[in-house]
Amino acid sequence: MSLYECVLIARNDVTQQQFEGIADGIACQLQAEGGTMKKREYWGLRTLAYRIKNNRKGHYMLLGLDAKPESVKEMERLLRLNETILRFLTLGVAAIEEGQSAILSHDAGDRGRNFRGPKPFNRFDSGRRRNTGGREEFRAREASTKDLAEAPNKDAAQDPSPVPVMPEIA
């Protein structure tokens, strides 16, 4: 027997229980032919990258299978006939991962979805100026950033090292 992973995408108007019923049918069909379903993960209703048969969202599920190649071909044939399944992909794998998949572990992270990292230093010095209204705290902040920006130029003025000049070619 070989190991396979299969990802299914079902239409969004199907309920989760109906989608689980499809997975139960696959498990029964595999057991009848001597295979087993080692893993089943429901990933939820997710937005598709592009429309598939006029659907913008779909229910995703990952199945880990231990079955004969003939039973996998029969399962794929039945999935093609099922109108609720938009897409499926079955891959042969060396081992089925224990625990959660990368999709579920990434979604369970406690980071905020809108976190974009720390704000860059001097982000308003790139030509875009904000209206400070002449408030004192902003003037002090702008003065300190100007001092930091001019600091390397002061060092260069104190250290007059000769700069090689390329001769002009006429």
Summarize the structure.
The chain has helices at 16-32, 69-81, 102-107, 136-158, and strands at residues 2-11, 36-52, 55-67, 85-93.
Feature tags:
single chain, about 170 residues, alpha+beta, Alpha-Beta Plaits, four-stranded antiparallel β-sheet, 4 helices, about 35% helix, about 30% strand, elongated
Q: Would you give an account of this structure?
A:
This protein is of the alpha+beta class and 170 residues long. Helices cover 35% and strands 29% of the residues. The protein has a domain at 2-95: Ribosomal protein S6/Translation elongation factor EF1B (Alpha-Beta Plaits, 2-Layer Sandwich). It is built from four helices and four strands. A four-stranded antiparallel sheet has the order 2-3-1-4, with helices on one face. Strand 2 and strand 3 (55-67) form a beta hairpin. The longest helix has 23 residues, at 136-158. The chain is elongated. The model has no long low-confidence stretch (mean pLDDT 81).
Structural class: alpha+beta
**Poorly predicted runs of 5 or more residues:** none
Helix-residue proportion: 25-40%
Shape: elongated
CATH class of the domain at 2-95: Alpha Beta
The counted number of beta strands is: 4
CATH topology of the domain at 2-95: Alpha-Beta Plaits
Main beta-sheet annotation: 4 strands, antiparallel
The overall average pLDDT, rounded, is 81
Number of helices: 4
Task: Enumerate the strands of the largest sheet in spatial order, edge to edge or round the barrel.
Answer: 2-3-1-4
